[in-house]
C-alpha cells in the first residue's frame, strides 16, 4: 500500500486543542499522563544543534505532541551531522522504543535502509520527516512509515521560479547558490532543483557547497559569503538552501557591505531572524516548510499506527511563500518558535 499524500492543512482535525507552546529546553524526555497514546515510547529526532534555527521548531512540535497525546519521548540531537545521526539511529533502535519519529532521512536510503529494516523487524514504527527516503518508505508504508515535509526537488524549483518572477531576475544574470548538492539521498535534490530552474531560465549559477562547520553554526559562514560576493560582484541574486543560513542572511550581507535590496535573497524556513530580515529588506523571499508540523505529525503518526494500525501518511508541509506582503501575520508565531 502506498502512503497517502494529504495536505498539511487537513491534519488540523487530528491536532488536540493545544494551550501552551513548548520552547527550547534540555529535558531528555517529555510526556503527559492520561493521553490516548500514553505508554508508547518514542525516540524523536529534531535535527540539530539543540536550540538551533529550524530544529528548535521541530523539537517544539515534538514536545507539544508528547503533551497532547501522552507519549513518552526521548530526543536525539544530531547537529545536522549524518554520521552522528546514523549512530544515534542505531542507538535508538537498540533501546527498543515503540517508534522512531522525526528527521531520520537526512542520511539517505543507503544508510537508513538497513537500520529501518531492523527497526520494523523488531516491531519499531519509523515515521520520517524533512528529507524523504523514496526507496525505503514504500517498503514499510503499510506498516506505518510516513513522511512529513516537502518534496525537495519541487521545493527547490518552486523557490527559484518564484524568485525569478517576483525579483524579475533576468536571463544572463548571475546567481549565487549556497547549498547541499553533496548531501546524502533526497536532501541534495532541493539544491539541485534550485540550480536546474535557474539554469533553465538562462541564469548563470555560482555554486558553493555548505561545509559542516557552517551547516552546524551558520554564523561561521560569513567569510565564505563575503569571499564569493567579492569574487563575483556581478551577482544579482542569492539562494540559501538551509534554514540556518537563511536566518543569517542579514549578517552575511552586512559582512559583504551589501545594503538591503542590493541583491535579491531567497531561502528556506521562517524564524524570528528571518522575519526581521524580510522587514529590513535584507531577505526577499522564503518558502515556508512549517517545521513545527514536521515535529508534531511524525509523533502523531507513530501513535496512530501503534494504537490503531493506521498506515503511513505522506504529508506536504511546504505549500506557501513569505515576503514583505504577508510576513506580519507570521512574525508573532515565529516569536513563539512555532513558525
TrEMBL record:
InterPro entries per record: Peripla_BP_I, SBP_2_dom
Protein name: Unannotated protein
Localization per Swiss-Prot or TrEMBL: Cell envelope
Primary localization: other
GO cellular component, one term: cell envelope
Keywords attached to this entry: Signal
Pfam families referenced in this protein's UniProt entry, alphabetically: Peripla_BP_4
Domain Periplasmic binding protein: 52-299
GO molecular function, one term: carbohydrate binding
Similarity annotation: Belongs to the bacterial solute-binding protein 2 family.
Amino acid at each position: 500500500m502506498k502512503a497517502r499524500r494529504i495536505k498539511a492543512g487537513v491534519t488540523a482535525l487530528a491536532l488536540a486543542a493545544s494551550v501552551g507552546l513548548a520552547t527550547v529546553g534540555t529535558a531528555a524526555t517529555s510526556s503527559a499522563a492520561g493521553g490516548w497514546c500514553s505508554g508508547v515510547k518514542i525516540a524523536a529526532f529534531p535535527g540539530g544543534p539543540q536550540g538551533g534555527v529550524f530544529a528548535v521548531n521541530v523539537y517544539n512540535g515534538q514536545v507539544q505532541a508528547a503533551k497532547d497525546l501522552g507519549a513518552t519521548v526521548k530526543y536525539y540531537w544530531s547537529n545536522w551531522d549524518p554520521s552522528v545521526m546514523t549512530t544515534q539511529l542505531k542507538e535508538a533502535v537498540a533501546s527498543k522504543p515503540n517508534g522512531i519519529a522525526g528527521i531520520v532521512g537526512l542520511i539517505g536510503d543507503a544508510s537508513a535502509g538497513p537500520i529501518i529494516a531492523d527497526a520494523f523487524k523488531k516491531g519499531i514504527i519509523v515515521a520520517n520527516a524533512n528529507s524523504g527516503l523514496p526507496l525505503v518508505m514504500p517498503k514499510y508504508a503499510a506498516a506505518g512509515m510516513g513522511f512529513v515535509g516537502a518534496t525537495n526537488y519541487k521545493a527547490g524549483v518552486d523557490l527559484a521560479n518564484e524568485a525569478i518572477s517576483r525579483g524579475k531576475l533576468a536571463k544572463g544574470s548571475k546567481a549565487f547558490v549556497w547549498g547541499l548538492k553533496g548531501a546524502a539521498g533526497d536532501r541534495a535534490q532541493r539544491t539541485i532543483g534550485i540550480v536546474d530552474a535557474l539554469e533553465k531560465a538562462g541564469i548563470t549559477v555560482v555554486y558553493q557547497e555548505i561545509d559542516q562547520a557552517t551547516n552546524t553554526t551558520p554564523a561561521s559562514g560569513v567569510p565564505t559569503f563575503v569571499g564569493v560576493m567579492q569574487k563575483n560582484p556581478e551577482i544579482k541574486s542569492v539562494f540559501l538552501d538551509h534554514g540556518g543560513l537563511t536566518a543569517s542572511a542579514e549578517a552575511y550581507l552586512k559582512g559583504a557591505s551589501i545594503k538591503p535590496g542590493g541583491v535579491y535573497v531567497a531561502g528556506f524556513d521562517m524564524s524570528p531572524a528571518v522575519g526581521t530580515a524580510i522587514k529590513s529588506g535584507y531577505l526577499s523571499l522564503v518558502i515556508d516548510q512549517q517545521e513545527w508540523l514536521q515535529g508534531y505529525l511524525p509523533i502523531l503518526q507513530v501513535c496512530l499506527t501503534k494504537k490503531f494500525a493506521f498506515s503511513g501518511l505522506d504529508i506536504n508541509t511546504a505549500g506557501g511563500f513569505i515576503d514583505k506582503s504577508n510576513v506580519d501575520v507570521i512574525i508573532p508565531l515565529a516569536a513563539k518558535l512555532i513558525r
